[in-house]
Specification:
The protein is built from one helix and five strands. It has one domain. A three-stranded antiparallel beta sheet has the order 2-1-5, covered by helices on one side. Helix content is about 20%, strand content about 35%. By secondary structure, it is of the alpha+beta class. The radius of gyration is 14 Å and the shape is globular.
Length: about 90
């Protein structure tokens, strides 16, 4: 399982969607990245693979970062992907 996680301006919680296949996850990651590079805000619509009726739409101008990582089966206590401060 692969997770595409979007960090949003002024929001402490990221928006994340999952994809079963790496190719699907990479495709979604690339489409979000291209929306960030484009001129002017665009509406991004993310859907759930399991339930296609579940959707979320957001403006590309509100996305600060996007990351793609593989979800592991390990329990809590594992290091979170991306950049973080250790306390």
């Amino acid at each position: 399982m692969f997770v595409i996680e979007l960090s949003l301006k002024l929001s402490p919680m990221p928006v994340a969607v999952q994809r079963k296949d790496l190719a699907d996850a990479q495709s979604l990651y690339e489409s979000v990245r291209q929306a960030l590079e484009g001129s002017g805000p665009r509406v991004l619509e993310l859907t759930c693979e399991k339930d296609p009726d579940k959707r979320v739409s957001l403006l590309s101008s509100e996305v600060v970062a996007v990351q793609l990582f593989e979800k592991t089966a390990s329990g809590s206590g594992s290091k979170r992907p991306g950049f973080s401060f250790e306390s």
